[in-house]
Amino acid sequence: MSRFNQLAQTTAVRQVQEEMGSASAAGRRLREQVEEPDPLDARSADFIRSLDGFLFASVGETGWPYIQFKGGPQGFVHVLDPYTLAFLDVRGNRQYVTAGNVRGDDRVALFFIDHARQARLKVFGHATAVPVDQDLALAERLESPRTEGRVEQIMTVRVEAYAWNCPNHITPRFSEREVSEALAPLHERLARLEEENAALRAEIAARP
């Protein structure tokens, strides 16, 4: 069993799998325990770098989960090494729920999804949030690219395990940037045609 499945498939989860007839599905069979964290492979690292946002889940002292969207330019989540993700956290609504949660329990789940490519990646990890002045060298390393705004802290996630989801039910959606890039050749073609059309009209108008 993979490290991710080992952490995710608890006794209760496996009981439901048994009830639903999926316990023997590929990748769910009980195998020897995996104790070491999973290093991110090149595909996963490149996927994370290519995105402009992800969902960040933490758990508070009440036991309730909390999900926050983190966004920025492509690559604002930096893959420092196969076990470490980091980004500069900027000022938002100043509730600091996620920052407070990881101080009490550093276990988090990250959900990276690309609607355009219908792909998603799940990550388990241990998060820390520290003021920028505690590690100025790392803060400088994370400066470009980063989310616009007033930087308040460095968020680091030590990867414990990850897994790719199937693409089923991911609705294809495209960001404004992706639509603009896709339509750019068409706009250029239309501009050239308009110039040609204008030149032909001028030529016709000039004929005796």
UniProtKB/TrEMBL annotation:
<feature type="region of interest" description="Disordered">
    <location>
        <begin position="18"/>
        <end position="38"/>
    </location>
</feature>
<dbReference type="InterPro" id="IPR012349">
    <property type="entry name" value="Split_barrel_FMN-bd"/>
</dbReference>
<dbReference type="Pfam" id="PF01243">
    <property type="entry name" value="PNPOx_N"/>
</dbReference>
<feature type="compositionally biased region" description="Basic and acidic residues">
    <location>
        <begin position="29"/>
        <end position="38"/>
    </location>
</feature>
<feature type="domain" description="Pyridoxamine 5'-phosphate oxidase N-terminal">
    <location>
        <begin position="43"/>
        <end position="138"/>
    </location>
</feature>
<dbReference type="InterPro" id="IPR011576">
    <property type="entry name" value="Pyridox_Oxase_N"/>
</dbReference>
<protein>
    <submittedName>
        <fullName>Pyridoxamine 5'-phosphate oxidase family protein</fullName>
    </submittedName>
</protein>
